[in-house]
Amino acid sequence: MLYLLINSAEAAWLPVAATDLAKEVDQLIYFLLEISVLASILVIGGFVYFSIRFRRKSEADKPPAITHHYLLEFLWSFIPFVIFMFVFGWGWLVYDKMRDHPKNALEIHVYGQMWNWDFVYKNGRKSSRVLTVPVDKPVKLIMSSRDVIHSFFIPSFRIKQDVLPGSYTALSFTARKKGKFPVFCAEFCGAGHSSMLATVHVMGLREWEEWLVKDPYKGMSISQIGESVFQKSCTACHTATQEKRIGPGLAGLFGAKREFEKGGSLVVDENYIRESILNPSARVVKGYGNMMTPFAGLLQEEEMTGLIEYIKSLKIEQKDK
Ligand code: HEC
Ligand SMILES: [Cu+2]
User: Fold this and answer.
1) Confidence band, pLDDT 50/70/90 cuts, at residue 321
2) Is the pTM of this model over 0.85?
3) Would you say 118 and 110 are in contact if contact means Cβ atoms under 8 Å apart?
């Protein structure tokens, strides 16, 4: 009954269940909810009923001195015990399935870093912020972090796993619905934690295979390539205007004078931008912390060149002056 009631209000309730496992998790949650509601009704209802039924009616009203009742005491311990063990066993079975990594799974590497998710596929194809997978195929994510502890959480699949620096953790699923599902970082990892978002894009196998071999930058100018990398990897900390975030706004950077935390200054050229991206701690801009992720090894040459050209093209807008 309750299950039906809640299911009809699905939109305002749990996110869509896009895997078989998600449905099993939901059944367990609904069961827990049902017995909790039932228990609340029994306890509160009994409480109200007894306080009316056995209320003190006169001065002389005295309750009998009951010390114990073996059968009753046994039942109110044993019945909850059976229910709890049942839930424990059920939870165990679902959890065990959650931790199962099918042998024939398609493996995708996941890297978390402040505050972005990168994905690397077997053929070398990379993507940021969007994980594309084929529908109805077991997928295994092999995950690690480039800095602090993050947690990869796909609500619609009902699975979550911590992502650690210096070691690998894994997460497996078989998506049963095509579409786009949100991914959250579920471990507070600093100022940009709430913008550490991604999307799982589930598509047909054919479509996915085509996507896998597609050149993501086909037909783009070098500065458009830079802009697309910037949108995916840098906007958690930088804006394309002069507005500050964790790092300085990058408009008007090229040709401007920069002072550094350790002293010294220079006029910004291509070499400085390149160094700032690959090895940010070499020269930390005055007034900022050494908080930028080093991008050495993470960018292809065309992406690097693209970023430099894109940053050079960012002029100070009228309203920024
Ligand atoms: C985790 C936050 C973070 C991310 C992500 C990040 N940066 Fe930074 N960035 C900073 C901070 C903080 C500074 C200032 C301190 C320093 O110089 O290291 C900075 C400085 C810079 C500078 C020098 C700016 C100046 O005013 O001299 C450039 C250029 C830059 N970042 C480019 C990038 C690009 C391009 C990306 C994406 C590929 C990126 N950053 C990603 C935080 C970040
Ligand atoms: Cu995080």
Assistant:
1) very low
2) no
3) yes
